[in-house]
Amino acid sequence: MPSASQPGPTPGSSTGPQPGAAPLAQPSAALPASPPEPPVPPARAQGQTAPGAGSGAVQPFVYLGRQPILDRNGALNAYELLFRGGAQNRADVDDDALATAQVMTRTIGQLGVPAVLGRHYGYVNISRELLFDDIVHLLPPGRFVLEVLEHVRFDAAVLERLAQLRRAGYRIAFDDVSEITENLLRALPYADIVKVDLMQTERAALPELVASLAAHGKTLIAEKVETGEDFELASSLGFELFQGYFFARPQVLRAPRVRASRLALVRLLALVANDVGTAELERELRSHPGVVVQLLRLVNSSAYSPGRPISSLREAVLAAGTRQIARWAQLLLYASGRDLPWGSDPLVQLAGTRSHFMELAARSLNPQDPEFADAAFMTGIFSLVHVLVGSTPENTLDRLGLSREIVEAVDGHRGELGTLLRIATAAERGDHDGAQRLAREAGGMFTALTPPLLGELNLWAGAWFTAYAEG
After folding, report:
1. According to the model, what pLDDT value does residue 5 have?
2. Which residue from 137, 289, 300, 419 has the highest number of Cβ atoms inside 10 Å of its Cβ?
3. What angle do CA 263, 267, 270 make, to 5 degrees?
4. Residue 10: what pLDDT?
5. Is 385 helix (H, G, I), strand (E, B) or coil?
6. What is the pLDDT of residue 298?
7. Can you give the pLDDT at residue 301?
């Protein structure tokens, strides 16, 4: 565990812009050249409602800002993650807690931690409200630094909470420091890193401020480094890390919006609160494909990965654990804002109906093999996930850690699950002759999928989704 005076060794470092060089056009250029990291498309012009702003049309993308934090040699040390309500590179934040909740859901559940951070740390702004919220534990302490906002008052309750979080392995940074105050002095023993705002600090007061903070053994970050002169001054005073427009403006990343049903999240929280078993959680998750997609992203983050491919919802639930599922549902519920109802999304409707059709078909074909039915359900959900997140099947499935059988079924229609997926796709198009022909050509157990049975399965799957979508 890193000492209180140092941020600890970074998971990876890379050569960034050299001090004094022209500002970077794209901070992503500072990412390591090898191994390559999954690309994240920069945002194009799309509007979106910011937290707390007036209602408007739901946009197809979510956005996230990241600004590099560099060491004195120009090597990339970390990124600060920033709320962005649209492609425009500005914050427009009027609710700190909601903005951070959306940063967390977009980083972990939609863009993915590896794509956003690579091998580097992420600094996340934390308000007093979120400091005391259990959902902060969704951030793996080995990947994230908790950056306490400047307006947080360090009373006894806050200091005790900071001590708890540090014992849990988190490193704490204080944001926008410009002077030594009683509030700051009281809290310094609970911080690892202090970010000094060069724009808000009087130049004549900087040497004394830096000397005082350094005497307390804190790692110092100079933020809002706007010019070469700022960088030279900060370097001469002993700052170790640097952030500002002199190096790079924040880069705006985007990902297609993945919606989660608010009703589904409420149900999940209620089930966890009632301490239900894995089977009930699994049963509830089956009715909500959007939540399953994000749960798989959570499970496959570095902190929770089971180290083996996932082939059923039960494995995903067991890997995450009920407490993490509750935290994730709470965060998604808080950050979901004014999304369109889940039942009105045609892509989610199709994924839900297809997955249940495949599960019912698998149970009909092999009633003694529940694992085959589980895998069929997962195949149905993830057969469309690449469309939902705007990528290719290969790239998307690699990030979800699914079993080889499911991957081969989705990306190539291979194996028994692949055959079942082809039959389901034909049936949902209304091509019953084509579905019957595929079943006949596959032979074996698939010959049991007669036209009457295919029609019944389609009807049951559609009725099942409608019942859940309407709550």
Report:
1. 36
2. 289
3. 140
4. 41
5. helix
6. 67
7. 59
Residues 348, 345, 462, 318, CA torsion sign: positive
Per DSSP, the chain holds a count of helices (H) and strands (E) of 20, 10
Fold of 262-469: Hypothetical protein af1432 (1.10.3210)
Sheet strands (E) in 226-366: 241-243, 251-256
Produce one character per residue of 388-418: b if its CB has 16 or more CB atoms within 10 Å, e if not: bbebebeebbebbbbbebbbbbbbebebbbb
- Run of H or E residues at 67: strand 61-71
- Given a contact cutoff of 8 angstroms between Cβ atoms, the answer to whether 407 and 313 are in contact is no
**What would the DSSP string read from start to end of 156-202?**
HHHHHHHHHHHHTT-EEEEEEE-S--HHHHHHGGG-SEEEEETTTS-
Task: Name the pTM for this structure.
Answer: 0.59
Pairwise CA distance, residues 50 & 406, whole Å: 37
Query: For the chain, which residues make up each domain, given as ranges?
Result: 14-256, 262-469
Return phi, psi of residue 374, to 5°. Answer: -60, -45
**β-strand pairing of 241-243 with 219-223:** parallel
The CATH number of 14-256 is 3.20.20.450
- The neighbour count for residue 74, using CB atoms within 10 Å, is 18
Whether the CB-CB separation of 427 and 435 falls below 8 Å is answered with yes
Q: At what angle do helices 322-335 and 289-299 cross, to 10 degrees?
A: 120
User: What pLDDT, on a 0 to 100 scale, did the predictor assign at position 401?
Assistant: 65
Closest CA to 416 of 386, 448, 390, 387: 448
Give the Cα separation of 411 and 446 in Å (integer): 21
Residue 358 · residue 380 · CB < 8 Å: yes
Assess whether the previous peptide bond of 35 is cis (omega < 30° from 0).
yes
For helices 451-469 and 415-428, give the axis angle rounded to 10 degrees.
80
Q: What is the dihedral of CA 150, 155, 161, 167, to 10 degrees?
A: 90
Identity of the amino acid at 384: L
Cα(366)–Cα(21) distance, rounded to whole angstroms?
A: 65
* Residue ranges in the chain whose pLDDT is less than 50: 1-56, 337-344, 468-471
Report the distance separating Cα 146 and Cα 125, nearest Å. 6
Predicted local confidence at residue 290, as pLDDT: 67
* Sign of the C-alpha dihedral computed for residues 282, 285, 289 and 291 taken in this order: negative
Angle in degrees, CA 112, 115, 118, rounded to 5: 120
- The pair of structure tokens assigned to 12 is 């990876």
Nearest Cα residue to 84 out of 138, 27, 46: 46
Contact, 256 vs 390, CB < 8 A?
yes
